[in-house]
Amino acid sequence: MPEHLERGTRIAPLAALYCACLIAASAAWAATPQAGSPAPGFRLQDQAGAWHELKDYRGKWLVLYFYPKDDTPGCTTQACEFRDNIFAYNKLGTVILGISVDDVASHRQFAQEHGLPFTLLADSSKETAQSYGVLRSVLGLMEIARRETFIIDPQGRVAKHYASVDPKGHSQMVLADLKVLQAKP
Q1: Worst-scoring range by mean pLDDT, 44-48, 70-74, 155-159?
Q2: Annotated active-site residue in 19, 21, 75, 80
């Protein structure tokens, strides 16, 4: 077989795999709830093993932030900034919930190590990350949640979605947006 044809037969499967990944990523992105739409429900355990559901937070403002992995540099920065601003969030009557696909034990250790005064939810089944359109595959070896945040209003609707989050300074940005959102009639 001529070399140029042989190369093509080696590249074709890779191209097909690349296209499949793009289609899968597009489907996940399309499933992301947008501002004004109802937030997908969930039932997850926190770092102490207690169960939480979205409906438990009806009537409150909620910051629901997804992050890739406990105790990694970016995730620690993000969690500690939310921790450091907890009094400002409390003043606004806002609850913070962090979600990753790590398990309860991992969340317990992460929360204790960094003195996190808010709830971390374990999405070990990955269903919640999938329903929010934030589940992604890393090299086809494992699935993690993308770093994305949703502000959910007291009626259970997505008020704001942050699709691209820089952990440094994100908490301050969310606080500023919450003040604007809460001031709307």
Answers
A1: 70-74
A2: 75
Look up 19 and say whether it is catalytic.
Answer: no
What would the pLDDT profile of 138-168 be if each residue is shown by its tens digit? Answer: 887 889 999 999 999 999 999 999 998 999 9
- Determine if residue 84 is left, alpha or beta; phi over 0 gives left, psi from -120 to 50 gives alpha, anything else beta: alpha
d(CA 158, CA 167): 21
Of residues 159, 144, 183, 175, the one with CA closest to residue 38 = 159
93's tokens: 């009557």
The whole-angstrom separation of Cα 33 and Cα 92 is 24
Calculate mean pLDDT across residues 133-138. 89
Instruction: Please state which of the four CATH numbers 3.40.30.10, 3.40.50.1100, 3.40.50.300, 3.90.190.20 is assigned to the domain occupying 31-183.
Output: 3.40.30.10
Q: Side-chain half-sphere of 15: how many Cα atoms within 13 Å?
A: 6
The pLDDT of 5-31, averaged and rounded, is: 46
